[in-house]
Design a protein that fits this description.
The protein has a two-stranded parallel sheet. It is mostly helical. α3 crosses α4, α4 runs antiparallel to α6 and α6 packs antiparallel against α7.
Amino acid sequence: MKKPVVDYRQFRLSKINDPRFSHLKLLGWWIPYLILYFAVGRLVPSEECYMVHSTLDDMIPFCEFFVVPYVLWYFYIILSLGYFALYNIEHFKKLQKYMVITQFISIAIYFVFPTTQLREANFERDNICAQLVGFLYSIDANTNACPSLHVAISLAIASVWRREKSANIWLKTAAITFAFLVCMSTVFIKQHSILDAFAAVFVCLIAEYWLFWRKGARTGKNTKEEVL
């Protein structure tokens, strides 16, 4: 079994500025993100938002079983961050920054261009997955639709896993495959339009450029990246 690069048993909140643990401060970005996400989602009623829909959406059948990867996405984020926090601090920082970029670009778009999604009205089957989708609909407002953060964050995680050299091929394949299952789930349970997914890809391209493609990012000499 691999040995963690940091012994978190020694962590105390008072040691957050210690070089061994200072990367954990990046997790603090989740607080303003969640506040802004829910605040923006309630600024404009769903009936006043722009409905995102395309003919491709009509060709994609509703499949309630995709609710499983959709819900497990939350654990996917935690487990991926946990892995990189244990075995690759640089990739932990890359992933957290990647998500920050996609989250705040998306929130800015939601604020300027509020969107909503046309959900499934009637379920053909009555099973636990269909009931879970119905429950999801009841607790999750169908605003903040485009771009899809489920897709954007899944692609962010897949991007970093693809670059992870400490993981074996099976773990990397499973992690990346699950990311694409989550992306598919957004359209199959009608939480998002396919256009929301395309928009998420565009947002991810911005993050890819900033974190991996720029000359400074590739050489590790860009000081702006360290400030984020």
